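Per reviewer request, we include the raw input and output of the structure prediction for the construct analysed in the revised manuscript.
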Amino acid sequence: MSIIYRSPYEAYPFLSDASEDLRCDFEIYTDKVASMTGMLIADCNEPELREELIKVEELIYHSNPTLRTKLTLTEDEVIWLKNRVDYWNEETKGRCEQFVLPCGSKRASLAHVLRAEAKGLVRLLYRYKESKHFVDNLLIDFMNLLSGYFFVIALELNHIDGVEEIPYKSRNYPSK
């Protein structure tokens, strides 16, 4: 076993953790999702939506150290996010009855990227749990809701920005 070089300029103290230890990966990716949410906030001129996105960004950062320390997201916060997903689902009802391409306005496209990144975080949590580590189910629920949240936000942003969704018909998964 070789000794891993530790740079005196290391950007984060856990970057040299063993490859099978996914905690640092989770922290890096939640930081990425929070930072990208900040990019979305920068392009959001709607005051209420902007404030909502800031709260979502804070919740993402609260989830960041969870695997290394403890879960500080509360059940009420996860319920709040579910309620926001339900609200936006109702607001966007009828705009997406099938698969759509993940595109549209610049900010809706960013929301689609955030949706995909949140799914990646869910996958990472399942891998971590599969390797016999504890992962609170509330954290898994939060990340799944986060993916759904960014999907409906993408639909809403396309609507606000006057961009029509582009239907996508899969060659692999027949539509119902």
